[in-house]
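We read letters as residues; the fold follows as tokens. Both lines appear below.
***
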Amino acid sequence: MNALLERLTERQRRILETVRDFIHERGYPPTVREIGQRVGIASTSHIKYHLDRLEEVGLIQRDPRSSRGIRLTVAGERTVGFGEIVAIPLVGVIQAGQPIPVPASDFSLLGIEETIELTRGILGDTRDLYALRVQGNSMIDALVHDGDIVVMRRVEEVENGEMAAVWLRDREEATLKRVYREGSRVRLQPANPNMAPIYIDDPRQVQIQGKVVMVIRRVG
């Protein structure tokens, strides 16, 4: 048995496996209450106690700003059998706010040395993935904060409402927003009630660089 797993109580193992299963099923982490419902513990304080222990041994990380701020560390993923580790290139910064210029419109991977490690089990299909560090808070209601990392899948089209990295050709700028095609124009919608959407009257100026498939929280 995995040495870390041997140090856990039965409840802690069940909670760790619940976090794994929930992320695998839904694509995002559970809340404390949702964990309690799955493992049959009504007291949220008891769940938080066990989460504290799991964090102390390095199996999870938590973002206190978010009710869904629990994620498995690489050690946690290995412990509960999420499988092979995959290195994803961290290719740059994307603005979650007003668009900002970026060095190249194709997020070129040439010379990229920094990567993030995740397990194949949590990612599913690992083709065409890359990662960007988020700058700004325009997507906070979508649980994406300044300093977080978004894992992207390279696609050229997204469904209405999906969160995407968008290259604006005429401005030579990139931004992270939810994309809506509305007749002859495109609306780039922030997830922050204090920020206004960006309207693009010429859809040809909008190039989708990829859609968000996972958010990795910055802790601390």
Remarks:
- The helical segments are 3-6, 10-26, 32-39, 44-56, 74-79, 120-123.
- The radius of gyration is 19 Å.
